Amino acid sequence: MSEITYVRGDATAPQGKGVKLIVHVCNDLGGWGKGFVLALSRRWPEPEAAYRRWHRERAGNDFALGAAQFVRVGPYLWVANMVGQRGMRTGSKGVPVRYEAIDVALGAVAVRAAELEASVHMPRIGCGLAGGTWSRIEPLIERRLISAGTAVTVYDHD
Q: Partners of 78 in the beta sheet?
């Protein structure tokens, strides 16, 4: 079993050869406007447009905590919008991150990465605006992706 590779850099410019899948966490309210999503939107319009459409049409699709949407942004590049955050603010119910939802969505990412023969690239998902801790996220990545043989690179932005 391999391990997560940590690098300094930009997760929207993933390193390496072959098909790459950029993974990030979205909220369940249809909001897209702070954090890592801004970097995604600066590079490609498709992930935001797909996410907003997915949320708007949620009565007839699988949009919910734990769901993952896969958006192709280049010949060898995909973005996974994972719904792993309840709301957007810390309040009486705690921080927005939902570890169980991220775990389920990472399961879907593992399946898609295997189908695409892709490596997975991400910032420290769930740890920014979502308020999560990496010590709870990292084991989910190890269980869902690393144990399945998927190469994972985590980017710490300068």
A: 21, 72
